[in-house]
Amino acid sequence: MVRTIALTGATGFIGGAVAARLLGAGYRVRALVRPGSVHKCSQLPAKIEWVKGDCAEKAALGELLAGADSLIHCAGAVRGASAPAFSGANEDGVASLAQAAQAQKSPPRFLLISSLAAREPQLSLYAASKRAGEEALRRLGENLFWTVFRPAAVYGPGDRELLPLFQTMFRGIAPVLGSPASRVSMLYVGDLAAAILTWLERPGLNHAVKHAVYEVGDGRPQGYTWQEIIDIAAQCRGKGIVRIMVPDWLAKTLAQCNLAAAGLSGHAPMLTPWKVRELLHPNWVADSGPLTAATGWQPEMALAEGICRTMGLDMHKGMA
After folding, report:
1. In which band, very low, low, confident or very high, does the pLDDT at 230 lie, cut at 50, 70 and 90?
2. Cα angle for residues 210, 212, 218 (degrees, 5° grid)
């Protein structure tokens, strides 16, 4: 029997990659789509079964979860100018899904795609909302078999958050923020989708460990400094990249100005004072060891090849 997977965030970057991977593995995918995002459905595989609604609508959630083997929650907010802009999607949405899952005759296993930022909730509104979402699942999903993935910085084809940074680097300029000793883990979106598939295909994992939180990165033990990431981008580009050091005060000032401009225009800003606090944090290294030990999953994409693919380049032609 073909297993049905309920999915949120399928019209987004990570959710779209997950949907494609699930369909390729032979799963039936039933995805929740907000009315304002219906136009994006035509850009995704036709085999996806769409349910119109959002995480606040009980009827839509009931339709999404009916008969589903597992629920994968990828939807979330990454931009915003206030706490409610994040909490509605990142906390309240998780709570609603946990309650809807528990109401099912046969509750689905629940995989929450959170963020490594949840490890440091004091840094930003986004990080706090992601941790709050995890806590909502812990509090309301006591009788569910649930797992939380905390991915590192996810990138790949179709990404909109890290792509501008890579594009700037490929123009020959790289802004450098924070301490030279700061380190960050990266994760190719295809490797994250593979980790999710591995989780699905190891149902015994969830019964052996009823509730678990795993960090997910590309396996590099100490992550990367920004200088190392720039060096790798320069190899992909085939030319050197000029580093421009951005003082902390300047980054904070620009973030304040951007937040003020967002208040006037009504758009959801990415660069905010709390996002700068995230960027200045010295340790965003993910330890994937526990996930690998539990599931056997191994990341496969090296950063150089991943950057080239993100930029639409052949690594072997692009690298000098």
Report:
1. very high
2. 140
**Are the C-beta atoms of 233 and 243 separated by less than 8 Å?**
no
Q: Please state the pTM of the whole predicted model.
A: 0.93
Percent of the chain with pLDDT over 90: 77
Per residue in 152-161, pLDDT tens? 999 999 998 8
Cβ contact 25:196 at 8 Å: no
Q: Which of 5, 1, 144 has the alpha carbon at shortest distance from 71?
A: 5
Would residue 239 be called left, alpha or beta, if left means φ above 0 and alpha means ψ between -120 and 50 degrees? Answer: beta
Residue 150, beta-bridge partner list: 215
The partner residues of 283 in beta bridges, in order of sequence, read: 183
CA triple 193-196-202, angle to 5 deg = 145
- Give phi and psi for 193, each to the nearest 5: -60, -40
Element at 284 (helix H, strand E): strand 283-284
The CA distance from 280 to 250, in Å, is 12
**What's the Cα-to-Cα distance from 93 to each of 7, 100, 114, 178, 199, rounded to whole Å?**
13, 11, 12, 33, 22
**Is 41 or 314 the better-scoring residue by pLDDT?**
41
* Res. 314: pLDDT tops 80: no
In the three-class reduction of DSSP (H, G, I as helix; E, B as strand; rest coil), residue 278 is classed as helix
Q: Give CA–CA dist 268/274, Å, rounded.
A: 14
Q: What is the DSSP letter of 280?
A: H
Question: Rounded to an integer, what distance in angstroms lies between the CA atom of residue 213 and that of residue 216?
Answer: 10
Return the amino acid letter for 317: K
Judged by average pLDDT, the poorest of 214-218, 252-256, 295-299, 308-312 is 252-256
Q: Shortest CA distance to 101 belongs to which of 52, 141, 49?
A: 141
- CA terminus-to-terminus distance, the chain: 49
What is residue 320's predicted lDDT score, i.e. its pLDDT?
A: 44
Mean pLDDT of the chain: 92
